[in-house]
Design goal:
Helix content: 25-40%
Distance between the termini: 88 Å
Structural class: alpha/beta
Strand content: 15-25%
Order of helices and strands: HEHEEEHHHEEEEHEHEHHEHHEEHHEEHH
Strand order of the largest sheet: 4-3-2-1-5-9-10-11-14
Shape: globular
Number of strands: 15
Length: 420
């Protein structure tokens, strides 16, 4: 009888150890990274290739979690969340199940039908579910924003019209079918709303923006409290986006992952184009705002009243219908500040924009701008800063010049004090 009891206890202990090991394995990831694919737009046909690249990249990520949320315009599927592990998609769960678990608003657009992935509560629900189900033992999380991007522009969830302009991140056209799959006419998520939802979740080690125009000082300042690093481009990028077969392993490096992400992205020459890229360490944004406020105030007489002369400045994007313009921050300050003022400001910039790769041209037509703006610019190491900033222009009329006032950077950088 004694031997029997010993045997039973031994089996029980082994079972308990096995259970503990299993539970440990579920929470053992060093870092968890979620790729958030907002693909109900013209980018849908890049999703499959990117998933293949992610599978390839997942073969060498070690003890980490690579997650993907996929909202595809043309598959007819409800969006789903899954883990990519050793080249395989596993642990897939539909958004419908996520919505039930996270008690999301049961509105038809969120649960019964196809959700708008550019709605704040949808993104929050997906991220919260993902990070709870696949936690990092080190509280180390990353987010990849896959989709369209347009920098800081402010209006949330505005239905498309012929005159509608791009609004920050996403586009979700709300039409989960092939006929409307390529339509860029849907809802966007603005950066203040994104910052608010991310503030409710575990702090992010990085946000990697695989979308256009997101490396703005306005964006970085808004997100400064929710992530340590912001990685991406101030310019447009080709639809092919990041080379995930190499970028995925880079995202899980322990220290200078941000440098490796940029290096592999830049090396690819996406779609045959060079892409200017940069990394912002967000804990420097307060100091950069103060330095910018000082230099703008001291340079106000040179900048002048009204709209500054922007002829010859590096710009990363211009759209003749939307009148969006993104100017290089360093090039603007270099043009208007005196030497000592500029050098002081540049020291702060270099401590904040900690890494960058310069391109000399990107996906813009340099002849698209009206002649009175100066069609051409030259990119040099001296001029290139790798991040953009708002500069008022009369061609924007009153829309952007008013909307910028809703961004925290507006007052922090002293735009209001020089009449912008």
């Amino acid at each position: 009888m004694k031997k029997l009891l010993i045997a039973i206890c031994a089996v029980a202990m082994l079972a308990a150890c096995h259970k503990d090991d299993t539970e440990e394995n579920e929470v053992k990831a060093d870092r968890t990274v979620l790729v958030y694919i907002s693909g109900e737009c013209s980018l849908w046909d890049f999703i499959d290739d990117d998933l293949k690249e992610m599978k390839a990249g997942s073969q060498s990520i070690g003890n980490n979690n690579l997650l993907v949320y996929v909202d595809n315009a043309t598959t007819g599927e409800i969006p789903w969340l899954a883990r990519i592990n050793k080249g395989q998609i596993t642990d897939s769960v539909s958004f419908t199940e996520i919505a039930k678990v996270m008690n999301l608003d049961p509105a038809e657009s969120l649960v019964k039908g196809d959700p708008y992935s550019s709605e704040a509560q949808v993104m929050e629900g997906v991220l919260r579910y993902a990070f709870q189900k696949f936690p990092s033992k080190n509280n180390d999380y990353g987010l990849v924003l896959w989709g369209h991007g347009s920098g800081w522009l402010i209006k949330d969830s505005i239905p498309y019209t012929a005159m509608a302009r791009q609004k920050a991140y996403g586009i979700d056209n709300g039409r989960n079918d092939k006929q409307y799959g390529s339509a860029d006419n849907g809802k966007w998520l603005n950066i203040p709303s994104m910052a608010k939802l991310l503030s409710k979740l575990p702090h992010l080690s990085f946000i990697f923006c695989d979308c256009c125009n997101m490396m703005c000082l306005e964006v970085a300042y808004e997100l400064r409290n929710v992530t340590d690093y912001l990685i991406g481009t101030p310019a447009e990028i080709p639809g092919v986006g990041a080379p995930y077969n190499t970028v995925v392993p880079a995202m899980f490096e322990k220290t200078t992952f941000w440098k490796s992400i940029v290096d592999y992205y830049f090396k690819q020459r996406a779609g045959g184009f060079d892409v200017p890229l940069s990394v912002i360490q967000t804990n420097g944004m307060e100091n950069l705002a103060n330095a910018t406020k000082t230099v703008l105030k001291n340079s106000a007489s040179k900048i002048g009243e009204g709209y500054p002369n922007t002829s010859g400045l590096i710009y990363y994007y211009y759209d003749s219908s939307s009148h969006q313009v993104f100017f290089d921050a360093n090039d603007f300050i270099l043009k208007y500040a005196d030497t000592n003022e500029y050098n002081s400001w540049k020291q702060v910039l270099d401590k904040t924009v900690i890494y960058k790769k310069m391109a000399t041209s990107w996906m813009i037509n340099k002849n698209s701008w009206p002649n009175y703006y100066g069609n051409y610019f030259t990119v040099t190491e001296e001029k290139y800063g790798g991040v953009s900033m708002f500069v008022p222009t009369y061609i924007q009329q009153t829309t952007d010049n008013k909307d910028i006032q809703q961004m925290q950077w507006y007052k922090a950088a002293g735009y209001n004090e020089i009449g912008w």
